[in-house]
Amino acid sequence: MQFAEERKILADADDAQLVSYIDMHYGTFSARNYDIAIAKSRALCSRLYHPI
């Protein structure tokens, strides 16, 4: 059972902010690495559920 009231949809602006944060704090990575990481984070966010 998913808890839709606590769930937010990630937007492209969120992805851009994430890439910007990573660039500033950890250095620049290839676009392919960012694409893979963002795809995985979106997949994880879509499977969230509340255990109670």
Written overview of the protein:
The protein is mostly helical and 52 residues long. It has one domain. Helices cover 60% and strands 0% of the residues. It is elongated and about 40 Å long. The N and C termini lie close together (9 Å). The mean pLDDT is 77.
Question: What is this structure, in a nutshell?
Answer:
This protein has helices spanning 12-26, 31-46. With 52 residues, it is mostly helical. The radius of gyration is 13 Å and the shape is elongated.
- Tell me what portion of residues adopts beta-strand conformation: under 5%
Discrete helix count: 2
For the biggest sheet, the summary is: none
Choose one word for the global shape: elongated
Number of domains: 1
Q: Give the overall pLDDT as a whole number.
A: 77
Q: Which structural class matches the secondary elements?
A: mainly alpha
Helix residue percentage:
55-70%
N-C termini distance:
9 Å
Give the low-pLDDT segments. Answer: none
What series of H and E elements makes up the topology?
HH
How many strand units?
0
Radius of gyration from CA coordinates: 13 Å
